[in-house]
Structures are given as C-alpha cells and as structure tokens.
Write a structure and sequence with these properties.
Helix content is 39%, strand content 18%. With 697 residues, the protein is of the alpha/beta class. The chain has three domains: 200 residues, 3-Layer(aba) Sandwich (Rossmann fold), CATH 3.40.50; 177 residues, P-loop containing nucleotide triphosphate hydrolases (Rossmann fold); 223 residues, Four Helix Bundle (Hemerythrin (Met), subunit A). An eight-stranded mixed beta sheet has the order 5-4-6-3-7-8-2-9, with helices on both faces. It has a seven-stranded mixed beta sheet with strand order 1-10-17-14-11-13-12, with helices on both faces. Helix 3 crosses helix 4, helix 5 crosses helix 6 and helix 15 packs antiparallel against helix 16. Bound molecules: cytidine-5'-diphosphate and magnesium ion (MG). Keywords: ATP-binding, Helicase, Hydrolase, Nucleotide-binding. Belongs to the DEAD box helicase family. DEAH subfamily.
Length: 697
C-alpha cells in the first residue's frame, strides 16, 4: 500500500517502530458479499451482518470456545480489541444452549458501550432491541421477559444483588472489560466468586446437595494480556486467547512536549488530511469539553477547504451522549470524505470503530480520584492526567484493525517511557460510600469481602464517616432503616438523603426536579466564552438569591410552562435563546419519572410541593449535603465544617461574587485551587440543627 510516511509533520515528529505492534500477518479475507437479486433490502443487510460475523477473528475458534465454556465454570477470555468477544460470545452461548433457560448478562463499565453493543447484537440477531437482546443502564433500560442477552453496566448488576443476592436470573455472567478494574466490576467479581460457590456447590456433591438446577458460569473478558491475576483469583479457571487481527502501526512521537494538545491535535489532523491517503482519523481526547472545542475549530477550517478536497465528517463520541446519538460513527464513510472521530478513552477497548487508519493520541485522559481525609471530608476529583503505557498501546492499536496504520503521539518518546505501565484499580482511588451502602444492604462489608485488591484504609474510614453522618449507618457500622431507604434510590447517598428529607419538609416535587437535573449526564447550562454577556443577560431571570439549586428549579419550572403551552419547536428555540441544553431537561424528565417510582415504593408522596418557599428546599438538600458545608472566613474564602479545606465559590455559580456566611455545595472541583460548585446559602442556625440531629442518633 503506498504510504507517505516521510512528509513533514507539524509537531516535529520522528518515526519509531513499536515492538508491540508487529504484524500478525493474518491475511484479510474476502470482500463485501455480492448482493443477491431476490433478497429484500433488510434481508441483504442481515446477510451482510452475518458475513461480517463469520469473518471476525473469533469466528474461527467458535467450536473450541463453546467446548471450553461447557467444560469450565470460569473462563478468562483474552483477545485484541475488535476480535469479536463482546458481540459474538453471548450469541455463541445462546445458540449452543449453554445458557439453558436463563439469561446471559454482559457487563460493561460504561453506559454508552452497553447501549450501543446491545443495538449491534440485536441487529445481528435480526430482532428488535429490547426483545431477546436488551440493555439495562442507570435511568434507561430496554428489555422484556423474552430477553436472553442483556448488556448492562456493572453498576446495574451490583444493584440487582440487593433484590436477588444469588443473581438467579442469570445462568451466565460475562464480566467484560475486566482489565479496566472499575470499582463496580471489582465488587461484582468478588460477589460472583461466592455466588458461584453457593450455586454450583451441590453439583459436585452428586445429588447429595440441594439445588442443582441453577449453576452459574462466569466468563471474564479482557483486551489486555494481564490475565494471571483473574486466573489466580478464580482457582480452577481456564485462560483462553483469541488470535487478534492486528496490522503494523507506525508510531510517531512528537519531538517536544505539546503545551496545547487540542491545538496540536487540530494541526496534526489537517496535516494528515492534506498529506495522507484516504482513511479515517481517530483522535483521543480526555473529555467532552475538549471534544466540543476541537469539533468547533476543525469544522471552521474544514469549511474553508478547497472544493476539490475530500470533505471532513466529524463524529464526537463520549460517555454523556444519549443512546444512539453516536450512531454515525459506525456507518460507512461517504465517498470522498474523511471521518474524524473525536473520542474519549471509550474508543480504547470498549467500542471498535471501523475504517480507522490514523490515530492521534493526546496522551491525556480524565481520571476520577478520591482525596480521602481522615476526618471524613474527602472529595472526588476528576482531573486530566497522563495516560498509561497500556492505554497508549491500545490507542495506537486502533489504527491497525483493517490494514497498516499510523499513530501520532502528541508526546515525546521519553514521556511515553515515563508513563506508568497500567492504571491503578478504581477501588484504590475512588469514593466508596455508595458501594459500601449497597454492600451493607446485603449484609456485606468492604473489609470482609474477598476482593482482588483491598481499598486504602483511609478511604474506607472516610466513607464510613460519610454514611454515619448521613444517618445511613449507626455507630456500630450497621445499616439503619434510613440507610436502606437511601440505598433504594439509584443515586449517590447524598441526593437520596435529600429526597427522603424532602418528605419531612413537604417539598418532594421541588427536590426531585433539582436532583434529576443534577443526575443528568449532560450539563444544563451551555457556557460560551465568546458570548459571556449575552449568556448572563439571557439567564438573569432565572437567578435566585438563594443560589444554584433554586436557580435550577426556576429553569425547570419555566421550561415546564413552555413545554405545556407551546409546540416542540418553540421549546427548542426557547432553550437556545437562554443558552440551555434541552437534552439535559429531557433526560432529567425521564430520571424524575424513575425517581418518582422509587418514592412511591417507599411511601413518599412525590407530588407534595412547598410552592414558592425556599427554605424547605435548601434544608432538604442540606440534610444530604451535610458533608459539604463551608463557612465564610474573614479573607472571603470558605472553610469546610468537616474536612477543614479552604475553598472558593466556583465562577460558574450565581453566588460567586457574594459573601454568604454559610454555604452548601454539590461538589468540590480541583483545578489550581479547590472550588465549590453548585452552591446555595444556608442559615447558620440550620447547621446547628443538623449537628443536633447527629447527636440524637
Ligand atoms: O469485544 P471485542 O473488542 O473483541 O470486539 P466486538 O466489540 O465484539 O466487535 C466486533 C466487531 O463488531 C468490530 O469489528 C466492530 O466494528 C463491530 N461493531 C459494530 O460495527 N458496531 C457496534 N456497535 C459494535 C461492534
Ligand atoms: Mg469488547
């Protein structure tokens, strides 16, 4: 294939061949199937999908895999991204009858992966999504009593443990993307080990035991080869490898570090676009903001390209997209066009995008990290940081799926060598309170659970304190009745607590409106640095003196009025005029429906409203945000009442330039200093009330 690898590159790259990406010399088989004249459009589409299925690297090993799955209770399946593990293995299990009458669960650390994979597999099975193939993610599910293959987030299946501690509906549980070691995946794996011992025990006793009718099979799948740890954890498990299809990828490192990776990514993209043969470009960026800003600049320059040039089709891809929103990523690139996919690390291993020949790797990702404090005042941070060597290799590998490819790293070779080999499991660096509460509900504890890695002692202590202060645990670390109610909500304990408190204050309707917006994956307020004044003017009428929570409530109320009285188009226009994201409002409305159902189950009347009163709402939120209170200091900063950190009010807050004696806030964000975001004023006397409540317990 003709390649011009030696053209000048904008960031001063030099070549280096990576030993990790040698060709496996797997020849690419066949071309697209010839259309059969008699078939209808949909059946020819189905035939094409079947042809694609049979060409996946995993297809060659189908019979051998089924044999091994039949023979072993636990299998660890390793294979290159795109080899067909996630989409094919569940179908093989179903078709071979190994699932008996039960369901096959396939867990994913990310919501978007679960929904998009379910869509693909439903198409391959030629069934409607939600029938025999479905999905279940937080605040969104599509499955029915006929569902046999269910793609779900690891969080959803951990939640199911509370109602069904043996996960008896599932005869096979596939833990996918296990190498990511997400907190919920680790908790699931620990539980699966004991559940399997319980469900399969009587099998060995040859009739002496009780229930032999519902044994559990576990399949752990991973894209990286570090499998021994899973193998050791499940004694007697079998490790299997799928031969991948990986073509050579030429890796270029930047000769010097890049200060502005978004700008370098843009310049590198146009360099590829003008100098390199056709083939799609995949750019890895840390998060949604960078994706949106790069999308804008690439679009501006792409519009100025001469007419005889290939056009550019930009496809953003990140976790907060609604189901189906990113589907154009999977469609064939139109003629004389180059797709430019802007993705977070979701495209590293969870989702394989066809057609990619060039990868631009900024070397950055967002990482959640909990800063634990012994006093309990810890907080989650989401910081942009350098990726690991393992991620860098996965990212480069995305360029070599269908033929030889190129990977442009916007960092030096020395920077690559300085990266940690692989990421630390999430359980070692995340807030544990939500998971700990769920475990307490099923009589378990992080201290006694047999985990692959134990969390740090100070972060365990910190979550115990949080749950105690919320009233979910007593001093003996036992779960309280209030704690059980809190665990029933698919929310962080702080917001579940606020909803429960709203019953007492008679403002459940208002608190549900606010919490639903805070739980939506898209942001309500669209920020625009160029139109700052216009934004501020348009939003003036929503601003509430009490702060951001009641400002959100004003927006929701105003939107609802429009929604009832006007046509759909004018709602959209209204949102645009006020720089509001309608997607957040629509998503929040679905979330609110689900939270109302939970309220109903718990006997909380969700229609109770406090009218125009402000205090009931902030007081209810205060019960949840009891850890997130800060008092004004003489120098204008704020000091946490628990945790002692000095914080400032975030510039995006309506209270940012005000001096308020006491505030509650949704979260702390750490940039160059610690900011409180989502802020409301709270009377100092109320903080005393909260303290008094604590002593009564
Ligand atoms: O799990 P693994 O990375 O081994 O592969 P997979 O996710 O099962 O993907 C197998 C193939 O299905 C890839 O070639 C993908 O491009 C394709 N696929 C797709 O076209 N659309 C999706 N939504 C998901 C997968
Ligand atoms: Mg996969």
């Amino acid at each position: 294939m003709p390649m011009r690898a030696n053209g000048p590159l904008p960031n001063g790259y030099h070549n280096s061949s990576s030993p990790a990406f040698n060709s496996t010399k797997t020849p690419k088989k066949g071309g697209p199937p010839l259309p059969t004249s008699s078939s209808s459009i949909s059946s020819s589409k189905h035939a094409l999908l079947q042809e694609q299925r049979s060409e996946l690297p995993i297809a060659k090993g189908k019979d051998a895999l089924i044999h091994e799955f039949r023979e072993h209770d636990v299998t660890v399946l390793l294979g290159e991204t795109g080899s067909g593990k996630t989409t094919q293995v569940p179908q093989y299990l179903l078709e071979s009858g190994l699932a008996r009458n039960g369901m096959i669960a396939v867990t994913q650390p990310r919501k978007v992966a679960a929904t998009s994979l379910a869509g693909r597999v439903a198409a391959e099975q030629n069934v409607a999504l939600g029938s025999s193939v479905g999905y279940s993610v937080r605040f969104d599910e599509r499955f029915s009593s006929q569902t046999r293959i269910k793609y779900m987030t690891d969080g959803m299946i951990v939640r199911e443990l509370m109602s069904d501690p043996s996960l008896s509906k599932y005869s096979i549980i596939i833990v996918d993307e296990a190498h990511e070691r997400s907190l919920r995946t680790d908790i699931l794996i620990a539980n699966l080990k004991t559940i399997q011992q319980r469900r399969n025990k009587s099998q060995d006793a040859k009739g002496k035991g009780k229930d032999t009718s519902n044994p559990l099979k576990i399949i752990i799948m991973s894209a990286t080869l570090d499998a021994e740890k899973f193998g050791r954890f499940f004694t007697g498990s079998k490790i299997l490898y799928v031969q991948g299809r990986q073509h050579p990828v030429k890796i270029y490192h930047s000769s010097q570090g890049q200060v502005d990776y978004v700008d370098s990514a843009m310049r590198t993209f146009f360099q590829i676009h003008t100098d390199y043969p056709p083939g799609d470009v995949l750019i890895f960026l840390p998060g949604q903001e960078d994706i949106e800003s790069l999308e804008k600049t690439i679009q501006i320059y792409a519009n100025q390209l001469p007419h005889d040039r290939m056009s550019v089709l930009i496809c953003p891809m990140y976790a907060a997209q609604a189901a189906g929103q990113n589907s154009k990523v999977f469609l064939a690139t139109p003629p004389n066009t180059r797709k430019c996919i802007l993705a977070t690390n979701i495209a590293e291993t969870s989702i394989t995008i066809p057609g990619v020949k060039y990868v631009i790797d900024t070397g950055k990702c967002k990482e959640k990290r909990y800063l634990a404090r012994n006093t309990g005042g810890g907080f989650d941070t989401l910081l942009t940081r350098d990726i690991t060597q393992s991620s860098a290799m996965q990212r480069a590998g995305r360029a070599g799926r269908e033929g030889a490819g190129h990977c442009f790293r916007l960092y030096t070779e020395d920077a690559f060598k300085a990266m940690p080999l692989s990421a630390e499991p999430e359980i070692m660096r995340c807030s544990l309170s939500s998971s700990l509460l769920q475990l307490k509900c099923i009589g378990q504890d992080l201290e006694t659970l047999e985990l692959m890695d134990q969390p740090a002692e100070e972060s365990m202590k910190s979550s115990l304190i949080v749950l105690y202060l919320l009233g979910a645990l007593n001093l003996q670390k036992e779960i309280t009745a209030l704690g059980r109610q809190m665990a029933a909500f698919p929310l962080e304990p702080i917001y579940a607590r606020a909803i429960i408190a709203s019953k007492e204050y008679g403002c459940t309707q208002e608190v549900l409106d606010i919490v639903s917006i805070l739980s939506a994956s898209s942001k309500l307020f669209i920020e625009s640095s160029e139109q700052r004044e216009a934004v501020s003017e348009a939003r003036k009428k929503f601003r509430h003196v009490c702060g951001d929570h009641l400002t959100i409530l004003n927006v929701v109320k105003a939107y609802q009025e429009i929604a009832y009285s006007e046509a759909k188009g004018s709602r959209k226009e209204w949102c645009r005029r006020h720089f509001l994201n309608e997607r957040a409002l629509l998503e929040a409305s679905d979330i609110r429906d689900q939270l109302r159902q939970t309220c109903q189950r718990l006997g909380i009347d969700h229609s109770v409203s406090c009218g125009d009163k402000d205090d009931p709402v902030t007081f209810s939120l205060g019960h949840g945000l009891v850890m997130n209170i800060a008092l004004l200091q003489p120098d204008g900063t704020y000091k946490q009442t628990i945790g002692q950190s000095i914080v400032k009010i975030h510039p995006s807050s309506v209270l940012c330039d005000k001096k308020i004696p006491a505030i509650i806030y949704d979260e702390l964000v750490y940039t160059n200093q610690i900011y409180a975001r989502g802020v409301s004023r709270i009377p100092k006397s109320f903080i005393v009330t909260l303290g008094a409540l604590k002593q009564q317990r």
